[in-house]
Each structure stands twice: as structure tokens, then as C-alpha cells.
Specification:
448 residues
């Protein structure tokens, strides 16, 4: 047998690596094709059922998981989503979610904020997180012996349930508002701002729970909270002014050129990398990167025209599928499990919907706007999926609770748009959309 030289061995290693990469590509591409086809069909069906397309995409992810596809065709599901494909799907889903939240932040017209809007948003955020957290905490204490892992304390378990129920599906909420042209209406801006506060507080709670569960204690989360605050200040006070010339250039030329595209892709990905390193997930880095973007209408239009369709069509469905692969709904069959699920669902719905509606009414808005905002804030889909995926990965929750909270995400999100339309019919909604560029004045009205 001839002696192999180091150069021959290196060449053989390169060939083997190339073959492995090609084999991985041939595994990933069919998975992406199936994900996109299923998402397109389910999204279309959701629109036919008068639901937002994003709900259909979320259901598509669950259908591709072990509950449906894996149950009917276990061999095909295992072949389509083998273990070496899932890390690729995770990376794609994280990039897609970060870029989508970047577009949400860039499109939020916070320059049109009316006097007192920040205070109203803080009050709405408080009413959205406190009742849900308290009701979820109580439900968690009652269900600890039924659903918790033995190494998780009752208080830790109850706080996790309360934190999950206090979330609002910020990206999904934003997408519903964008699809209906309400993202810059008075209630749209107020709801987005309050939802961002709710989710940020819930992530701080998750940081504390994670530190406690891993043994470093609640104080271990303090650096995460401080670094997150510093990051937000740097993005809004340092990075934002540096990006203003880009906005002026787009406003002058009417287009976002190649150099500008490099900037608008690198900034959110870098911000997401930093916040992921801090410990609050890349999604918030993307959102603050969007807030730091120039506020010129021409820039927003050019940015969304170049990126929004690709991100929402290609990358977001991958995240829903990645979450669906971890969802097994068969584990919640039986009387005691169904009762536990009903208790969690009731705690989540009542705390968010009625808490936010009553808060809006107390702020001087009419009953129509109040119940409409309560319905929107009650949608949890995307953010709760991220929250519980982290809890499952860190062995803080069982798969049974994970499946229940996935169902909570689906049902509260499915109910958001019907309840919103019931409170704010189309003729009233058009009036609010027409007022998006005019300073609103909350007015008292009665719901007939």
C-alpha cells in the first residue's frame, strides 16, 4: 500500500468534506420545499377562513411535526427532517425572525407619537402583563404536581407559566397590523409599543428563571438586564444618528442601493448576535436595529419593498416548522390533562383580554377600541413559541406543558382577529386607518 503524503491526505479530507456538504444540501433543500409548500397552502386556507396568513403558517409548522405528519408517515417525516437538518433549520429560523423584527422596528412610525402616548403604552403594558402573570402563577401553583418536572420548584414553575401567558405575539401582532394597514394608526402604535414592553419584561423574567434553574441564582440575571439596557441606549442614541445620512440618501435618490443593502442587513444581524450573546435572544436586537433606522417615509418604503416579502415568505415559515418538530399534542389526552389545559387557557385569555380592554377604557378610549386592543394583545403565537422552546431546551418544563402552551398560542392567535373584527368592524377600522397620519384624540364611545 503506497504511503500517503500529507498533501494527499488533505486533498482526500477536502473531497470528503465537499461530499458531506453536498449531502447536507440535498437534505435541506427538500425540507425547505415541503415547508414552503405546506405554509403556502395553510396560509391560503387561513385567508379563506378570514384569519391572518401567519396563523396558517403556524398551523403548518405543527402539522409537519410528530403530531400529524410524524404520526401518519413516521418514516417520511424522519427522512425529511433528520437530526443533521434541524440545526440548519434553527439557524435559518433565527435569521428570519431577527430580520422580520428589524423590519417591524424600522416600520414603526414613532416619530408621529402623540402627547402622552408613552404613558398610555406603559399603562396598557402593565395591564397586559400583571393580570396574566398573576393568573398564570396561580394556575402554575395548582398544576405543579401534575405538569412540572421534579427538579423544578413550585414557585419557579408557576413563574414560568405566568411569564409565558404574559407574552404578546409581537411579530404576529405586527404582521396582522401590517396586513390591515394599521401599524401607524393610534391603536396600532399604542399596541405595538405596549406589546414590546410586555415581551421585554417577560424575557427579563425568563433570564431570572434561567439563572435560578442553572444554579447561579436570581442575581445572575442582573448583568443580562443591565447589558440589555446599555445596548438599547447605544442603538438609539449612537447608532441611529450614524444612519441618518443613509436615510437622506434614499430620500434624495428614491432607491436603496447595494451599499445601503449591506448596511441594512449587517446592522440587524450584528445587533441580533450581540443580544443573543447578552442572553435576551436575537429578536430584540433586530427590533432595536429597526428602531435605529432612519425615519424617512421613503426609506421605510424602499426597505420594506426590498426585504419584507422575502423574509416573511422564505424564512419565517422555517421557524414555525422548527417549533412544530418539538410539539407532540398526543401527550395531553385524558381528563386531568384537558382540565389542566382549560385552566391555563382561561388564565391566559382572561388576564390579557379583559386586563387590556379595561385599561384602554380607563385611558379614555371607547369600548370598541378597548376590546379591539384586548383582542390584539391576546395573540401570543410567535413569542410564546420562542419562550417555551428555551424552557424545553433547558429542561425547565415538560413536553406536556410545552404542547399545552403551543395550543394556547394557536387558539389565542386564532381568536384575536375575529374578536378584533367583532369590536371594530371594517367601517370603523377604515376610519382609524385614515387617521394614522393625523394626531388622534381618545374619545369616549359606547359599544352598541
Amino acid at each position: 500500500m503506497p504511503l500517503q503524503t500529507p498533501s494527499h491526505m488533505a486533498a482526500q479530507a477536502q473531497v470528503a468534506a465537499a461530499d458531506a456538504n453536498l449531502e447536507l444540501i440535498l437534505k435541506v433543500l427538500p425540507a425547505l420545499v415541503v415547508i414552503l409548500l405546506t405554509s403556502a397552502v395553510c396560509g391560503r386556507l387561513a385567508l379563506m377562513a378570514m384569519q391572518p396568513r401567519v396563523l396558517g403558517e403556524m398551523v403548518a409548522g405543527v402539522l409537519l411535526g410528530p403530531t400529524f405528519f410524524g404520526w401518519l408517515f413516521p418514516g417520511a417525516q424522519a427522512a425529511l427532517f433528520p437530526p443533521d437538518v434541524r440545526p440548519v433549520l434553527y439557524v435559518l429560523s433565527t435569521i428570519g425572525l431577527t430580520l422580520y423584527m428589524f423590519l417591524v422596528g424600522a416600520g414603526l412610525d414613532h416619530g408621529a407619537r402623540t402627547p402622552g402616548e408613552v404613558g398610555r403604552a406603559a399603562a396598557l403594558a402593565t395591564s397586559g402583563i400583571v393580570p396574566s402573570l398573576l393568573l398564570g402563577f396561580g394556575a402554575g401553583l395548582l398544576l405543579w404536581s401534575t405538569l412540572s418536572r421534579p427538579d423544578v420548584s413550585p414557585v419557579e414553575f408557576a413563574l414560568f407559566v405566568g411569564g409565558a401567558l404574559s407574552l404578546t405575539a409581537f411579530p404576529m401582532l405586527a404582521r396582522i397590523l401590517y396586513e390591515r394597514g394599521l401599524q401607524n394608526s393610534p391603536i396600532g402604535r399604542l399596541t405595538l409599543l405596549a406589546a414590546s414592553v410586555d415581551d421585554a419584561l417577560a424575557w427579563c423574567l425568563l433570564a431570572v428563571l434561567t439563572a435560578t434553574h442553572l444554579g447561579s441564582g436570581p442575581g445572575g440575571a442582573l448583568p443580562t438586564i443591565v447589558l440589555t439596557a446599555v445596548f438599547a441606549v447605544v442603538m438609539l442614541k449612537v447608532v441611529a444618528p450614524l444612519l441618518r445620512p443613509l436615510g437622506a440618501s434614499v430620500a434624495r435618490t428614491g432607491r436603496l442601493g447595494p451599499t445601503g443593502m449591506y448596511v441594512v442587513v449587517l446592522v440587524p444581524l450584528t445587533a441580533g448576535w450581540i443580544t443573543d450573546w447578552i442572553g435576551v435572544y436575537a429578536v430584540f436586537g433586530g427590533f432595536f436595529a429597526g428602531l435605529a433606522m432612519p425615519r424617512d417615509p421613503a426609506f421605510r418604503e424602499a426597505l420594506h419593498g426590498r426585504m419584507l416579502d422575502v423574509v416573511s415568505t422564505l424564512l419565517l415559515p422555517v421557524f414555525f416548522t422548527f417549533s412544530g418538530l418539538n410539539t407532540q399534542l398526543g401527550g395531553i389526552a385524558g381528563g386531568s390533562m384537558l382540565l389542566a389545559f382549560a385552566l391555563i387557557l382561561a388564565a391566559g385569555f382572561c388576564g390579557k383580554y379583559f386586563g387590556c380592554a379595561l385599561s384602554m377604557r380607563a385611558l379614555g378610549f371607547g369600548w370598541r377600541e378597548s376590546y379591539a386592543v384586548g383582542a390584539l394583545m391576546n395573540a401570543r403565537g410567535l413569542m410564546i413559541l420562542i419562550f417555551i422552546n428555551i424552557g424545553l431546551a433547558q429542561e425547565m418544563i415538560t413536553r406536556e406543558l410545552f404542547a399545552m402552551l403551543v395550543l394556547v398560542a394557536v387558539l389565542t392567535t386564532a381568536g384575536a382577529l375575529p374578536l378584533y373584527k367583532l369590536a371594530l368592524p371594517e367601517r370603523h377600522e377604515r376610519a382609524r386607518a385614515d387617521d394614522a397620519d393625523r394626531p388622534p384624540r381618545p374619545r369616549a364611545s359606547t359599544l352598541p
